[in-house]
Amino acid sequence: MKKFCISLPIERPERTETAKRHFAEVGLEGVQFIHGFASEVSGLITAHPYEMDNPGSGFNMGPKPVGIFLGHYVTWQVCAFLDDDLFMIMEDDVQFLPGWDRRLAKALVEVPDDFDVLFLGSCDAANKPRRLIKGEVFEIKYPQCLHCYLVRKKALGYMLATQRKVYGPMDCTLIFHTWPALKVYTLFPRLAAQFNTEISE
Length: 201
Known about the structure:
Helix 3 (63-80) runs antiparallel to helix 5 (153-162). The chain has helices at 13-26, 39-42, 63-80, 100-110, 153-162, 170-177, and strands at residues 2-7, 31-35, 86-91, 94-96, 117-119, 130-134, 137-140, 148-152, 184-187, 192-194. An eight-stranded mixed sheet has the order 2-1-3-8-5-9-7-6. A two-stranded antiparallel sheet has the order 4-10. The protein is built from six helices and ten strands. By secondary structure, the protein is of the alpha/beta class. Helix 1 links the parallel strand 1 (2-7) and strand 2.
């Protein structure tokens, strides 16, 4: 599978280099880096409020989540032009846990053949409705965090079409507008965490 990591090699080269070293240490080869959007440089913001949690608040999520949103969207577009069927998409703070490669190989055998998305890293998944598929593969509706996931080419067109409005963190807007129509599965416990970030299971 093709592997992409969203990073900021111009604005945050140290993060990109740290990610490269980590990938080498854990034996993840062939990762290509996608230039994301540094909020303080791009100046990109959204005019749309995020009010799903607090209607009428007028809350604006700020420039950083906008940059993250667009980084994933651009990466999906890159993947959509390629001939490959399966892609791994990561953020540059991804931390692969011991045994990740063995667990991933097992999960790819256990996940249903027609899957669209498989979360390898996730958060806020432990207390959501779940159904065991096999082994460590679950149908959980729905995890959050996008630091490491697999996506099939067949899902990309729908993902691109349903994530046109930039108004909330993408891991939330995917739950509202995209995941319910796709076959989304989660490896649980996750095999990838995030460096220097404490996230809920």
